[in-house]
Amino acid sequence: MIKRDGLWIISGVSIVLASIPTVIILYYGFVIFHDSLGFGRTVLLSIGITLLSSALASMIIFIVFTPLAYELSRGKHLIWESISDIPASIPHPIVGIAFLLIGSPLTPFGRFLESMGFGLFDSIQGLVLALTFISMPIYVRSVQYTFSSRNEDAENFAFSLGASRLRVLYSIMVPESARGILSSALTAMSRAMSEFGSIAIIAYYILQYPFNGGQTASVLIYNYYGYYGPGVAVSASALMILFSMAIIVAIRIVGYIGNSGKKEGSS
Amino acid sequence: MYDEGLIWLSGENGSGKTTFLKILCGIIPVRSGTITVNGNDITLSDIQRRRVVYVNQNTYFPHLDVEGHIQWAGKLRASRIPLQEVMDAFGIDYSGRVGRLSLGQKMRVAMATAFFGTPDVILLDEVIPSVSGQDEIFEHLSRLSTRYSIDVILVSQNIPERHSGPIYIMKSGTMEKVR
Fold this sequence. Notes:
- The complex is a heterodimer.
- By secondary structure, chain A is an all-alpha fold.
- Chain A has 12 helices and no strands.
- Chain A has one domain: Orthogonal Bundle (MetI-like fold).
- Chain A has helices spanning about 5-35, 40-75, 80-90, 90-100, 110-115, 125-150, 155-160, 165-175, 180-195, 195-200, 215-230, 230-265.
- Chain A is globular and about 65 Å long.
- Chain A starts with 5 loop residues before the first helix and ends with a helix.
- Chain B is of the alpha/beta class.
- Chain B has one domain: P-loop containing nucleotide triphosphate hydrolases (Rossmann fold), CATH 3.40.50.
- At the A-B interface, α7 and α8 of A face β4, α2 and α4 of B.
């Protein structure tokens, strides 16, 4: 039950302050400027690229980093935890430069990728890799918390029956934490959608078919601001915010269902 | 432990019963001494290799259905007990997801799963009190234990009068055999 006391008032003021930029963009984008270029096909394509690349990054993060989250949740790994936090603590253009270097002919791996026609620069794979890297810490921390909040008795039961840790992860922990994992993946996707710094270096344009020089929403909005001024950029931003809000609502719904499921299970 | 069948372990709260069981199955590492089961020293063995299964009121997998839950143990180690026998022994004539069952039903499924894995030792930590029809369960535990040479340690405050096997009492971390 909500108590309308002093804490509630201060929290309400904080929420109002936090929502001001979003509300301003939505209001000016849809009501004041309402520029048709800001809602055009190019903007929709860029939002499509953003959603696709962020979703792919989330899937890769789920596949690659779920075991790490489990390992971190069940032991003291101060160095591993610090390493997994690095992408969240460095300026993201550095991440873009790092992937630019990895995919360049300067490194053996870059030469190999180039020879396979799988170069990272201005490509969807470069974009997805950068988004995977920068969104990974949020997912790992969130899933680590989900796993560590679970009672270990059922896991120990499985171990004592002879199950390996990988088997317990995939046949017990992942299915039983599915909602928490999905919510974490959506949060990581949401973070990837907002990325700009690393993309501006590694994948300013996506040159491959069917994107044909398309850009992510963050880069396109930055371009529009430079070319056309705030009107078009604000309209495109308002449209992008709607898509971002849809993802956030999905996260909340998944989280709510997860919590109510837990309460039901514990009763 | 040397093929002692059904063993009853009792003691006051905080006397160290659960700690003892967790040391036995490998959840808590041994600081000193050795653990020997049927002549095999398992002191340094991984929990997965000990063949000592620990069951308490939280040891079930809510997302699995009843039969899948029991058979899960059989995927890890070839079972010596037919599935139907273990289900009959614990009166499991129901189905559905384990998470939706009552605690007593969950515990029957957990015990059936432990037996289906046919380990050397099964540790039942305060499991029996949450199951109805305890006398019947007790008889089936005794029968399965003898038939398949699985030692079972039951932890509970109350020891049934009809139990004729070994009884141990835990006092401040020290175990005393009273029968």
